[in-house]
Amino acid sequence: MEKIEAELKRWLPDNLSGSMVGSLPSSLQASERSTWAEKLFPGVAKKVSAESINILLEPLKDVLSRGGKRWRPLLMTLVCESLGGGDASVPLSPLVEFTHNASLIHDDIEDDSDERRGKPAVHKIYGVDSAINAGSFYYFLSTCCIENLQDDISKVHVYKLWTECSRRLHLGQSMDINWHRNFSIVPKIEEYYLMCGMKTGSLARLAAELGSYAAGAPPETAQKLGEAAEKLGIGFQILDDVKNLTTGIPGKKRGDDVVEGKKSLPDLLYLHNYPEKLKIID
Fold this sequence. Notes:
This protein is mainly α. The chain is 65% helix and 1% strand. A two-stranded antiparallel ribbon has the order 1-2. 32% of the residues are buried.
């Protein structure tokens, strides 16, 4: 976990102030301090004010500093280690964790959520405009670590895995949005599993596949572990749904899924068993 956190902070340091190039945190090695900003903003880093860049990065640092389970990059590293790759996948940690955080920022805007990880949601603090922009940038920032891979074949393969995952994640979110917009829609349980497999399971699948690839495992191994991880993601979402209605999830309001019109598994099981309870509100 310490290695994962260090890798995340290498691409999104805690303290940024003054000139992006001249005042980078001392925690970064000297060679990295001189090139970090240019890696993110080649050709323009020295010309843009620190204020403008901080408006972009502050929401991202805020979300990262709030912690989180980090189970996706941890899953990736454990898969890699179990297949004999050691910690070779650790440098790819931003690809799964930053992408996850990006989806959280946008998800909270779409649901108009009040809280995230015990604090006001990012858009409540920084404004919807900055939150949308920063959340989008988080997706792009996550791919910076790919450039550190040794060969072009690896880069192409990892980009392919990530873009496929990102497309599936957004399609799953689209299904969720469609359902909570329309009270008359009661998805089948199988549809719910499909939605969760894309919205939550896609990143888990990506983590397992990246861990396999970094360890040099054959494609069939990566596929099997990816499929298993996707089911793990579905299970994680089901537990999240249940906790939301029962004990509550730390950092969020208990029952906010119901308030937001989400069609979680407990809701669907109830409505399928008692269809007469469904009331359409015009």
